[in-house]
Specification:
By secondary structure, this protein is mainly β. The chain is built from no helices and 13 strands. The chain has strands at residues 2-4, 11-18, 22-23, 28-36, 39-47, 52-56, 62-72, 78-89, 94-97, 100-103, 110-123, 127-144, 150-166. The protein is elongated, with a radius of gyration of 20 Å. The two termini are 13 Å apart.
Amino acid sequence: IGYFFNDKNDLGIELNFDHAKYVMEDSQTVHLTGRIHGVDYNKDTLVTPSFLKFEHTNGANFLMANLIKRVRYKYYPVVGIVKLGAGVVIPKTDVTLFGERLDNVFHVAGYIVGAEAGLRYKFYKHFFIEASAKGAYANYTNVLTVGTGKANHHFFVGEYILNGGVSFPL
């Protein structure tokens, strides 16, 4: 959902929701820090499914507010679109730790910042198709796990996006 607010209709804002997925790779060595069952960890550890299975398959879910700049070309109806934004991550984490599984609830678990660029083709006056590429940094600072446990992790995201929509003047 977006709104262009200046006279040239080339600057606007948008509320954007990406229902992305995150699945942890099984049987990898990671650096663990923290405490599990009274044991302190601060070392490289082989993480197998019998130890930990961790995923946001019901969504890593990025909710972002973006500033939009539209760049017109000679060959209208094609325009360039650039977006910069930030927001929150709202995962639904499915985690199994030491054989105990919990498919958690949706909750705000951190933040995301990113940029997107692409082309928008407008047709039949109000309809459009938009193809873009997006890069972002997602930082999950408060992921719910089993019991009262918490986890944190962060990663970079790369997406190719194809949107279709309707634009109309207000």
